[in-house]
Design goal:
Helices cover 34% and strands 20% of the residues. It has ten helices and nine strands. The chain has helices at 18-28, 47-53, 64-73, 109-116, 132-139, 149-157, 197-208, 215-218, 225-231, 244-254; strands spanning 14-15, 35-39, 57-61, 79-83, 98-103, 123-131, 158-166, 171-172, 179-186. It is elongated, with a radius of gyration of 20 Å. The structure holds S-adenosylmethionine.
């Protein structure tokens, strides 16, 4: 790794598999003028092939040693480095029609996905490498044990597509888990029918707080029997049985 010791606290598992790197860049298919933003460029495994395809690349990186290396290797007019925590970064400050990419640090992937879900209107698409188990939760359908808050909130805002499976040997150091690359495309505003996204978030959070219990119990204090009846939703269902549209219907009933 050319003198850099991987930092566990920053979730550093560097991609070394040329075939996978090529497949990710092909899936993104960047054009010269695209505004591509890479989260966690690290030692540049994806950064360098992306720089061959775009005029200017934005990166968000937290590790100061890696930032110093990137600054030495690339001119600022080609590589625009945003130093800091992607969890607190305002992606809208870069502009709109953004194409976000990254082999994300797995230790913060779920909160990062919730943070990025706020930028649907500034983003054209996102391509992320994540722990396979997280991708399973993202794409899970109702009735599946993996279906939960992450599935509902992401599927409400994005179309999701599972693209590539990636084994641990593709990284240095190898992570203890399998990985996968997923594509997220924001749905247009007209498709986002929740009157209050905050209410949708509240209902989904309450419903899945105890996923083994019936909705009657998990939504106690949120939706009463009359509400269940008005919406024709059986209060005996469990949170994992309810499709995304029904969560939106509950939230809209509560903000009517
Ligand atoms: N893109 C490189 C690759 O594929 O080899 C590195 C990927 S590594 C899994 C994750 C990268 O995200 C590291 O460069 C790490 O320093 C960076 N990182 C970790 N936490 C971060 C955060 N909160 N904000 C921004 N970057 C972060």
């Amino acid at each position: 790794m050319k003198g850099h010791v991987a930092r566990k606290r920053f979730g550093q598992n560097f991609l070394i598999d040329r075939g996978i790197i090529g497949a990710i860049v092909s899936a993104i298919d960047p054009k010269r003028n695209d505004t591509v933003v890479e989260i966690g460029p690290g030692l540049g495994a994806i950064t360098i092939p992306l720089l061959e395809r775009v005029d200017r690349l934005h990166v968000v990186e937290i590790d100061r040693d890696l930032i110093a290396r990137l600054k030495k290797q690339h001119a600022p007019e080609r590589l625009s480095i945003h130093e800091g925590d992607a969890l607190a970064f305002d992606f809208a400050s870069i502009g709109s029609d953004l194409r976000l990419v990254g082999n994300l640090p797995y230790n913060i992937s779920t909160p990062l996905l919730f943070h990025l879900a706020c930028y649907g209107q500034q983003v054209r698409d996102m391509h992320f490498m994540l722990q396979k188990e997280v991708v399973e939760r993202m794409v899970a359908e109702p009735g599946n044990a993996d279906y939960g808050r992450l599935s509902v909130m992401l599927q409400y805002s994005f179309w999701l597509e599972w693209l590539i499976d990636v084994p641990p040997e593709s990284f240095d150091p190898p992570p203890k888990v399998d990985s996968a690359v997923v594509r997220l495309i924001p749905k247009p505003l007209e498709a986002l029918t929740a009157r209050s996204p905050a209410m949708l978030e509240k209902v989904v959070q309450a419903a899945f707080a105890q996923r083994r219990k019936m909705l009657r119990n998990t939504l106690k204090g949120v939706l009463d029997e009359a509400g269940f009846a008005a919406l024709s939703i059986a209060p005996t269902l469990r949170p994992e049985d309810l499709p995304v549209e029904d969560y939106v219907r509950i939230a809209n009933y509560l903000t009517r």
